beta-lactamase (Sulfurovum xiamenensis), 100 residues
Amino acid sequence: MKKILLASILVLSMSSFTHAESDEFDDDLGEELTEREIVQDYIDDCNNHGDYYGCFSVAMKYEKGEVLEKDISKAIEYYEKACKLGSEEGCKMAEKLKVK
């Protein structure tokens, strides 16, 4: 009985160690993406996959001039795409920027 208990504890501790190593590996891969590549993924998600979150994220980057050059008309365009895809916040932001 003691051998079974000891073997179980050993297996559990090894699986925890392996899981911790895999998390570390995933984090390393995520750090390899540049901000520009992440924004490019958002653009692709928006334009090719109908993802309102991607559209909204691109709009914010254009609005704030982060990663992408500041361009309010492009920000409005992407907020409107997000709106058409179901983002209420996208609708609000597009209208807000049009008023400015």
